[in-house]
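Let's practice the habit of predicting before peeking. Look at the sequence and jot down your guess about where helices and strands might fall. Then scroll down.
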Amino acid sequence: PELCRLVMSPVSNNTLYSFSVIPSVMYRIQCLLLSARLKDQLGPTMQQFAIPALKILEAVTTKECQEEFSQESLETLGDSFLKYVATQHLYGKYKLQHEGTLTKMKKNLISNAALCQLACSNNLVGYIQGEEFNPKGWIIPGLGYDMCGNSKISFLSSNDMHILRKMSVRSKRIADTVEALIGAYLGAAGEQAAFVFLKSLGLDIEFHSNIPLERKIVLKSEKFINVRSLEMILGYEFKDTSLLVEALTHGSYQTAGATACYQRLEFLGDAVLDHLFTIYFYNQYPECTPELLTDLRSASVNNNCYAHAAAKAGLNKHILHSSLQLHGRMAYYFENFKQPFTGPSHGWEAGIGLPKV
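Done guessing? Here is the structure:
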């Protein structure tokens, strides 16, 4: 055999080589068609939102596929929006529950197990791309074969065009894919599209982006805080100044006539800030890697960063509390670390361990 040579003139070597990429091209087309089918499967309510099939493909492609794109950035975006929506829903629905109970309820509502169940109920798992493409093991769409190794080959009907391979997918990967799909709709079509997608999956939540919650609290806010001074610091005029009092009230403050402490608003605000930072970095740096996006988010969404910004603005002077221990800790930090508060309040420059309050 080593003395033989194959002659296929007039077919050139370049032409022969071009045929080797056909499986890869057809596989990409197959994946795009499956992504388009996934869009249709989500139902008529989702058809009003224009989202490219390539964006859906990105959302269902894991990093194990070794593609030039993966679901990780979309997952980060979708995760922040999901937490934001769930937080607002629970905050508005359970007005008498404290922060600890609301946090537990949120974890149960949007846990990996809950998202995995939603994905399975809506037949989304089969669309997940979880393995690197292998041209030698690729199955031509429309053909079936015996998984036991027999040579029998049969054509499938057009209604049975599914990938005929078994693939093990962890529940967390399934949950990540749901979050990535949320991020895909959010990034391509906005908050309303992402929320409708959640509802189409069967998640029982309500979301109002423009309607404030009604509060029936009669409180003379000026009795507790300097409203005008705080509004000048924040650059915002409050219609309901009792919110401002509540946001500044520590749990130790037990004066008669005061509103509740800030824990419920902290629960809400934490999710809002996380979502705002995430969507800002996602839109501001579209070319950044998923790892960098996560690092930027982590550097900005942390208690030290928030405390640094609050101290720089002077909000610490308006906190309502009755704790000698807290007063001593705050006095110590502001006495010994005055200099750092004059600089920028970026997360990576806010390394001082300020009191969490």
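How did you do? The beta strands are 143-145, 153-155.
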